[in-house]
């Protein structure tokens, strides 16, 4: 009777999936059509789906390794025990860099968006004021804990999905198959640009900082956590497919070099889309959609960073302890955004490189080490080993792609 009562009160998979989907699908999605312009639709979808499978595997591998540790053990604790202090230090720096730089990127991207909307509503604020106000609001929600984040994330994701259906339903009614297939241009190559897309696709499925919080949320129930990861990442993939189809089916491939030259950020892409839309209401929907996309990623990323800092510094789970953790989570990124406001695209690119270490390579190493340290508790070792090999190959390919791109050895799409 007691077990059935606990089962009834166990949190639904839906709440965890909302956190994952809300974290994954955010402001970074606006970079995808821009960085995928060279590879275009077919090749980009292939890379995106491969990235989804591999990034889901890395999350499942981390969950498997975490099963040998008590609730509350975070990424840093598990890495230090299985791989040693050296790996823990390198991994910790990578996590802090990725989550910190993404926090900076979302503050930088959200400030102008929300400032413009508030000004139109009659509340005249500077961009800096808008950044500070939004950061304080998000910090308050994260301070409340996983339950508060999941509830607000659910509202934002549901609103985002509703807007997505409405907005991209409108975009799809205007979709031009010839534009999507780029059939008007003959003799153009696509595959040379595919490798450069890979790090951005990896960064587009970054949710690993939230796994420890989910494990605690589901009281260590591995099946519930795995289902939340699978549902949340799959929902994200579907949203990305809608987004790429809607944008690439309305914006000709030849229009993207101008978007890239204009900075390739949210405003540049939105401005280009408005010129091709025949229904003025769609422009308003795009503005509203961008608000929810930014706030979802902002919440998810900062919740993950909050959990990592709390675990790394062993901060007390009290109101004062959580306040200290919140200050460490938000203040550095906010200050950096106020001093260097235009680093959104560069931040997303660097996040893809460093995320390869802690979100791809380290989970694979943790799963392998856990097999060796806890052989009696290891199940399905054969399937795990296959997943580990696939993930390591994927991680190595991402490092190669980013390095070649950084050295200027990969072709850049210029039309």
UniProtKB/TrEMBL annotation:
It is a multi-pass membrane protein. The keyword Transmembrane applies. The chain crosses the membrane at residues 12-34, 40-65, 86-107, 127-145, 152-170, 190-207, 228-246, 288-309, 321-340, 346-366, 386-409. Signal peptide: none annotated. Keywords: Amino-acid transport, Cell inner membrane, Cell membrane, Membrane, Transmembrane, Transmembrane helix, Transport. InterPro entries: Amino_acid_transport_2 (IPR018227), Trp_tyr_transpt (IPR013059). The keyword Transmembrane helix applies. It is found in: Cell inner membrane. Its main location: membrane. Belongs to the amino acid/polyamine transporter 2 family. Mtr/TnaB/TyrP permease subfamily. Involved in transporting aromatic amino acids across the cytoplasmic membrane. This is Aromatic amino acid permease. It comes from Erwinia aeris.
């Amino acid at each position: 009777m007691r077990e059935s009562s606990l089962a009834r009160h166990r949190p639904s998979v839906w709440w965890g999936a909302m956190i994952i989907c809300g974290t994954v699908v955010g402001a970074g999605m606006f970079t995808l059509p821009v960085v995928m312009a060279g590879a275009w639709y077919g090749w980009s979808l292939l890379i995106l789906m491969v990235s989804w499978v591999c990034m889901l595997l890395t999350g499942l591998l981390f969950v498997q390794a975490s099963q040998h540790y008590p609730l509350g053990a975070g990424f840093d604790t598990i890495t230090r025990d299985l791989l040693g202090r050296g790996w823990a230090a390198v991994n910790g720096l990578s996590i802090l860099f990725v989550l910190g730089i993404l926090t900076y990127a979302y503050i930088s991207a959200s400030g102008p968006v929300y400032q413009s909307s508030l000004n139109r509503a009659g509340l005249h604020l500077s961009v800096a004021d808008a950044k500070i106000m939004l950061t304080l609001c998000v910090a308050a929600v994260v301070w409340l804990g996983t339950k508060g984040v999941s509830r607000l994330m659910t509202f934002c994701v549901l609103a985002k999905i509703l807007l997505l259906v409405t907005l991209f339903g409108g975009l799809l009614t205007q979709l031009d198959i010839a534009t999507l297939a780029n059939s008007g241009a003959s003799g153009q190559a696509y595959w040379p640009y595919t490798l450069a897309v890979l790090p951005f696709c990896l960064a587009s499925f970054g949710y690993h900082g939230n796994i420890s919080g989910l494990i605690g949320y589901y009281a260590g129930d591995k099946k519930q956590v795995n289902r939340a990861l699978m549902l949340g990442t799959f929902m994200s993939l579907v949203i990305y497919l809608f987004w790429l189809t809607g944008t690439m089916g309305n914006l000709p491939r030849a229009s993207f070099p101008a978007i890239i030259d204009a900075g390739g950020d949210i405003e540049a892409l939105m401005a280009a889309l408005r010129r091709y839309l025949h229904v003025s209401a769609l422009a308003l929907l795009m503005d509203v959609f961008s608000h929810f996309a930014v706030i979802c990623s902002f919440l998810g990323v900062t919740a993950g960073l909050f959990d990592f800092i709390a675990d790394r510094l062993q901060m007390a789970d009290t109101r004062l302890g959580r306040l200290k953790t919140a200050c460490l989570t938000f203040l550095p990124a906010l200050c950096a955004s106020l001093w260097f406001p235009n680093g959104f695209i560069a931040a997303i690119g660097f996040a893809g490189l460093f995320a390869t270490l802690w979100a791809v390579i380290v989970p694979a190493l943790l799963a392998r080490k856990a097999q060796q340290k806890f052989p009696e508790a290891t199940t399905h070792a054969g399937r795990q080993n296959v997943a580990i090999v696939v993930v390591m190959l994927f991680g190595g390919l991402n490092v190669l792609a980013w390095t070649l791109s950084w050295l200027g050895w990969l072709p850049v799409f210029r039309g």
